[in-house]
């Protein structure tokens, strides 16, 4: 039989343990509340303590979206090499429930400033995949995306932004030491001006010795946000003709769904000077006549765009409505830009850096039975003439590596489409 003193000791011990557990719960509750206040303080301090509902500022819901995107830790791609944070700014606003045409693009920080003109020209939903190759770039990318969402209404309303980084890197919410960085940003133009300065003098794909630009992964990430809609996939330093989205939606409303699958080719051009970018075909034809416009890749690889049949397209008079001008058969090494339903085969994500990344997907479309219909009035314009001197030093070596991969890829397609009579 236990003594009264020993029973009292155990009772006291149980009360002490219960009190300790209660205090621990209280501490965790206070800590959680403190963390929440710290997050709210970060929001206000990063932007000068202004009220979140002030004009041009993101709502609490949008801020929470960024927190959720980051708190998820992202998800790894199929290879396990990259981490993907989707919808950093939240899903964009979309009018109506019918089909839409989403402009999908990809970039690194050095070209993110191009998004301003792209959104202004498109005036519709845009999906952009942003690649950050290291911890410093991941932090800066998160900062700049937050600034774009905070200060740029059109970006917040129209753009879905996705951050891609190496699997070992983690994105985090901006810290208070970044306050000085944000204090200088008063308007949307300030954010894009800062991005333009950061990208000045940098070359595409020149990311450092240990970083490869995963362009096809980025394309799939950007296109994946389009859902069941149509997608126009293009490079971020290109602009579409004005009114393309509305004209295309009017066109597909008149087309039937029967027949073989197909894509709609949008002829691509390069412009010498970017001060005057054409919006309509009549204006593009004028610039072509004086040598300011030329077919895309005319100097670097004319065969890569030859099946578009530029002479035929240029001789078609500008029309008042968008229509299919003619249909052409794919042939190697054509790599057209096109509008497609989102059910097309994905890009092969093994292709990185320069060479064979877009042609591999066009080749698969050909074997899968897709037709290529060229649109009469629509076009794309790349800012600046493409010349050999603008490329990074490793371009040729990367091209050779991807050429070997492309040969393997074509053999794999024969097994994937054994009944196809077509070949790449």
From TrEMBL:
The pathway this protein participates in, as annotated, is: Protein modification; protein glycosylation
- What Pfam families does this protein map onto? Glyco_transf_49 (PF13896)
* Topological type in the membrane: Single-pass type II membrane protein
> Organism's domain of life?
Eukaryota
Q: In the record, what terms sit under GO molecular function?
A: glucuronosyltransferase activity; metal ion binding
Main location as per UniProt: Golgi
Cellular compartment(s):
Golgi apparatus membrane
Please note every region of biased composition (Basic and acidic residues): 50-67
What range does the record give for the signal peptide? Answer: none
Disordered, as annotated region? 47-69
Q: Which cofactor does it need?
A: Mn(2+)
Which key words tag this protein in UniProt? Answer: Glycoprotein, Glycosyltransferase, Golgi apparatus, Manganese, Membrane, Metal-binding, Signal-anchor, Transferase, Transmembrane, Transmembrane helix
Q: What biological-process terms (Gene Ontology) are attached?
A: protein O-linked glycosylation via mannose
Please list the reactions this protein catalyses.
3-O-[beta-D-Xyl-(1->4)-Rib-ol-P-Rib-ol-P-3-beta-D-GalNAc-(1->3)-beta-D-GlcNAc-(1->4)-(O-6-P-alpha-D-Man)]-Thr-[protein] + UDP-alpha-D-glucuronate = 3-O-[beta-D-GlcA-(1->3)-beta-D-Xyl-(1->4)-Rib-ol-P-Rib-ol-P-3-beta-D-GalNAc-(1->3)-beta-D-GlcNAc-(1->4)-(O-6-P-alpha-D-Man)]-Thr-[protein] + UDP + H(+)
State any GO CC term.
Answer: Golgi membrane
Instruction: Report the family membership.
Output: Belongs to the glycosyltransferase 49 family.
Protein name, please?
Beta-1,4-glucuronyltransferase 1
Origin organism is: Pelusios castaneus (West African mud turtle)
Q: What is the lineage of its organism?
A: Eukaryota, Metazoa, Chordata, Craniata, Vertebrata
């Amino acid at each position: 039989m236990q003594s009264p003193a020993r029973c009292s000791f155990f009772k006291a011990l149980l009360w002490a343990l219960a009190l300790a557990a209660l205090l621990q719960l209280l501490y965790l509750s206070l800590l959680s509340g403190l963390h929440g206040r710290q997050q709210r303080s970060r929001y206000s301090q990063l932007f000068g303590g202004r009220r979140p509902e002030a004009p041009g500022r993101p709502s609490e819901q949008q801020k929470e979206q960024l927190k959720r995107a980051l708190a998820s830790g992202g998800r790894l791609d199929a290879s396990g090499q990259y981490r993907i944070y989707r919808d950093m700014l939240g899903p964009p606003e979309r009018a109506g429930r019918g089909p839409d045409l989403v402009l999908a693009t990809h970039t690194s920080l050095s070209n993110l400033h191009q998004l301003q003109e792209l959104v202004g020209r498109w005036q519709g939903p845009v999906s952009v995949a942003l690649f950050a190759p290291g911890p410093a770039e991941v932090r800066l990318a998160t900062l700049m995306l937050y600034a774009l969402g905070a200060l740029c209404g059109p970006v917040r309303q129209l753009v879905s932004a996705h951050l891609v980084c190496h699997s070992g890197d983690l994105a985090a919410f901006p810290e208070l030491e970044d306050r000085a960085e944000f204090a200088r940003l008063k308007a949307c133009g300030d954010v894009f001006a800062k991005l333009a300065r950061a990208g000045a003098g940098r070359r595409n794909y020149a990311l450092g010795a240990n970083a490869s630009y995963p362009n096809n992964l980025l394309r799939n990430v950007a296109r994946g946000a389009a859902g069941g809609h149509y997608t126009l996939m293009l490079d971020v330093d290109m602009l579409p003709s004005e009114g393309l989205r509305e004209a295309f939606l009017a066109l597909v409303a008149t087309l039937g769904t029967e027949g073989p699958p197909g894509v709609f080719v949008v002829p691509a051009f390069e412009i010498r000077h970017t001060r005057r970018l054409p919006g309509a075909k009549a204006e593009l034809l004028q610039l072509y006549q004086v040598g300011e416009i030329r077919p895309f890749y005319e100097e670097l690889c004319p065969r890569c765009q030859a099946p578009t049949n530029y002479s035929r397209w240029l001789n078609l008079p500008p029309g008042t409505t968008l229509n299919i001008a003619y249909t052409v058969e794919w042939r190697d090494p054509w790599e057209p830009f096109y509008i497609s339903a989102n059910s097309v085969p994905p890009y092969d994500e093994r292709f990185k850096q320069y060479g064979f990344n877009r042609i591999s997907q066009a080749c698969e479309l050909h074997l899968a039975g897709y037709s290529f219909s060229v649109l009469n009035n629509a076009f794309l314009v790349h800012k600046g003439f493409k010349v050999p001197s603008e490329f990074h030093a490793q371009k040729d070596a990367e091209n050779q590596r991807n050429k070997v991969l492309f040969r393997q890829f074509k053999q794999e397609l024969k097994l994937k489409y054994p009944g196809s009579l077509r070949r790449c």
